[in-house]
Structure formats: structure tokens, C-alpha cells
Amino acid sequence: MSAPVRQQGTAARTAALLLPGAVALHDRYLAELEHLVSIDSGSYSPDGVNQVAAWTVRRLTSLGFAVDRVPVTAEGRETCFGDLVVGRLRGQLPVERGGRRILLAGHMDTVFDDGTAADRPFRRSGPLAHGPGVSDDKGGLLAGLTAVELLLRRGMLDFAELVFLATPDEEVGSPASRPVTVSLSHGIHYALGLECARENGDLVVARKGVADFVITVTGRAAHAGIEPERGANAALAAAHLLIDCQQMNGRWGDVSVNVGMMRAGSRINIVCPEAELHVEVRSSTDTGIRLARQAIEAAAASLSVPGATATVRQTEAIPAMEDTPAARAMLTHALEAGRELAIDLGAAATGGVGDANTIAGAGVPTLDGLGPVGGGDHGPDEWLDVTTVPRRVALLAALIVALGDTGGH
């Protein structure tokens, strides 16, 4: 377990010192944001993601990071993803003197197809900036880089190490980057997620975990007109199983169970011999996912159609980012800095999954939503409130300082 975070007062004092510098960097932030948003970098567009990766490498290198650009592939998939970027910056306070290793995590990919940046280019409308990925997560990724620069300009290096992670496939569940993220989390004391803040400004203290299942129902084919009694209709068994799964909602608090896809049969004159259900489970705790899996397996073992059988296979498992005392201790420092910056902060739990889930699942205390305020993610009206950028950058930088020196130096 990580040592207790530094005494109260550090985050507030640091935030006040850093705000003028964050304001001074604002114009460049906006210019860089426009550049990044103009690049199509959908998860399945590796060339575009790699343009963002190359830019991120240059930016990290200019800040003094030692940078690795890592090609990643997803086991068992032919899909090609862009490269992962990892930067490491040594601080001035060794671990044995109370210094801590802090991971900053953001992602370079978006959900949008090639051509979207040209169809909906970056634009400003009053306090809001619009464009594909402006909030999720180019605004947050850039906020992390800007916060680090702010600290370097002030010579605030009282930490053991900063590790900056930029992933290429977060929007599709990080199938290629997840093993690297888990490995990178070893030895990290605190993690700060660079997803943008909730629309009301809240930080994210918990994210639901996800487990995906494929249920294969096997029946017995027969001529539907001549001897249907010799068959076992897999589609009918799957239909009853679908209802059983949907009725699990509400059984264990916030656990949700959704049958998102169903496939059955191939010809209308054959008693259906096989069907398939794709089921997603989400829960704020790993215990909730375990209970749902047990219930799904029990339902699959007792089908309503004689002669039909079912097998359950788990295809995805992303741990919950649970609301823990360690995360709440980090939040305390953020709230302290927020008060100094006149930011009204709250703590949110969300059903959305991100790289913070993987990091928290590896045992690292994690706080997310530390980018500027944004919303409309994944839609045509995605926005970022650019007036929130300087204070949110100062908040993030102050939090790094508060967490980086747990020895009180």
C-alpha cells in the first residue's frame, strides 16, 4: 500500500503559485489543440494515430523525457493499431527519501472515421471548442503535457519519476495496449487519468468494470415440416436465456447485464440447431461481475428446451476502478487545490471504461477526469470549455506536487 499522501496545504499553495503560468501557456495550448483535433486518429486508423504519436514523442522529448514508442498488437486479432508512447522523467527526490512515481495516462485515439476532421474541423464558439476528439481525449492528453511543462518551468521536481502513457486503442477497450499498461503500472505509486472532467466539472473516483461473454446454444436440427419433434430449437432456448439474463438487472445493486447481440439459425425450414448470445456485464466492483457470471452460467446450465445445451465463454475482462480510501485521499488534495482555484469539484462514478480501470486493477491508487471540462463525447457536438483549461492545468500540476513528495520534504 502506498504511504499516506502529503499533509494538507501543499496542493492549495502550489495551485496558487502555478495559475499565472498556466494562463501564460493558454494560447499555445489552444493552437496545439487545434492541430491535434485536425488529425483523424480513429482507433482503426493507425496512420492517423501514429501522427499523434509522433507529435507526442516530440513534445515529451522537448520536455526532457526519455521516450519509447512501442508497436502493439492484440493477441488473436488481425486489426492493426497505432503505436503506444511512454515517456519517463526522473525527478529530484528518490523513493527512499519519500519521492513517488506518478503515472499520467491519456489516449491518442478517437471513435471517429477518417474524414471526420475535414467534415467537422476544429472551431471555437464562445467558450467552447468543437471537433472530433476535442474532449475525448485530445484536450486531456494536452492538459497533461502542459501541466508537466508548468512544473518544469517552476523547477518543481520533488518526485521520484513521472511516467507519461499515451495509448492508441482505448476507445475499443485497449486490447493491444492493456498488457503494456499493466506492466507499466508495476512500481507506480499514484496514477492520474487525463480523461476530461465530467460536464459538471466533477472528477472521476470510480469506473465500472466490464466482462463480455459469448453463450453458444446447441440444439438439434430436424425438418421443420415433417418431423419437428425430433429437433431441439436452439433459437427458442436462446430466447428464454436472453430473458433470464435481462432479468438479472437490479439483482445486485448497480450490476447491469445486457444481451447486445443474438444470432440464430440459417434456414427457415430447419429446426434451429445453434444460436449465440453476446452478453455484457458492468459493475462497480469485481464481486458484482463474479456474481453475474455465476448466475449466467447457472442459467445456461438449465435451459428450458429439452435436448439443448449451452456453453459460456468469457471474451473480455476489464477490472473495475473501485472507489477506495486511497483514491479518496488523492481526491482530498484535488479538492483542496480546487478551492484555492475557485473550482467547485465533486466526485463522480461512471459506467464508462477507460485505461484507468486497468491501472487501478493493477493495484495503483487512481484518480481520473483530470483534464479540462468537456462533454458530448463520441458525438457530432463534442465540446471542450476552453475557459476551464488554465485552472484545470494548474489543478493537475498541483496534484502532482502534492503526491510526488510523501515524505514532507
UniProtKB/TrEMBL annotation:
InterPro entries in the record: ArgE/DapE_CS, Bact_exopeptidase_dim_dom, Pept_M20_glutamate_carboxypep, Peptidase_M20, Peptidase_M20_dimer, Peptidase_M20A
Chain ranges of the Peptidase M20 dimerisation domain: 205-301
Keyword tRNA processing: no
Cofactor: Zn(2+)
Keyword tags: Hydrolase, Metal-binding, Zinc
Protein name: M20/M25/M40 family metallo-hydrolase
